[in-house]
Amino acid sequence: MPVIPSPSDGIDLRYDVAGTGPPLVLLHGSVLSRAIWRGLGYLEPLTEVRTVIRMDLRGHGRSGAPHQEAAYTQERFVADLLAVLDAEGHDRAALMGYSLGARIALSAALRHPRRITHLVSLGGSAAPQQGQVDSVFFPGVIEAVRQGGMEEFCSRQGLGPEVDSRRGRATRQAFLAADHLAMAALLAATDATTGIPDEELAACQVPALWMAGTEDHPRFEQSQRAARLMPKGRFVPLPGRVHGSTLSPPDEVLEQVLPFLR
């Protein structure tokens, strides 16, 4: 697995590469890792048409996990992403992100449009994020993680030691592997993320596919609005899905993503 230093603070950034074709970077959501793309069935179909780069975002997986809120700004995430592209020798790439990863992909497309060929936003948003981590997880999540650790984070979402479903156990184990102080810092930084002005979205010429669950409020409305503002944006609803089920099952998502990337 390649590892490079972040250009902003030197922490380790880990990622892997598979497949052939034009590059596509996959960016996971908060408290997850690059493993989600293989686990949910995205990796194999995508590697048939693309060189797929799966990043462990800073604070997640096997990448470095600083404990300072200032380490998790959009600027640092985008700098990490571009550093990985540079390390792999790619001037341009498509981006596909879920939740936090979708916001990073959007930030990269707005700030470095010449380097981004396509943007796929899954459960993403261009709106201010104040209060949204409580909405996605549960009220008071930042302090709960800071004080009670990842066990508290799991238990508050019905993923305590008694969980018996296969998916529930796998999700619990993934959450418990996270550094709780890094996650608290990440969630606090996310909560402080400001909105993207409409005029910036309207000026972006990167082709963008926005998808969100019809039961994922307010992400559904926010994604729909952002897609409408972008000149080359398109919105596709995912019927019946909430935020946590945006990616699963993958078939309905890939039916839209694969033709879009082609």
UniProtKB/TrEMBL annotation:
Organism, as annotated: Candidatus Brachybacterium merdavium
Domain AB hydrolase-1: 22-149
Entry-linked Gene3D superfamilies: alpha/beta hydrolase (3.40.50.1820)
PANTHER family linked: HYDROLASE ALPHA/BETA FOLD FAMILY, PEROXISOMAL MEMBRANE PROTEIN LPX1
Protein's name in the database: Alpha/beta hydrolase
InterPro entries: AB_hydrolase_1, AB_hydrolase_fold, Carboxylesterase_BioH
Keywords for this protein: Hydrolase
GO terms for MF: hydrolase activity
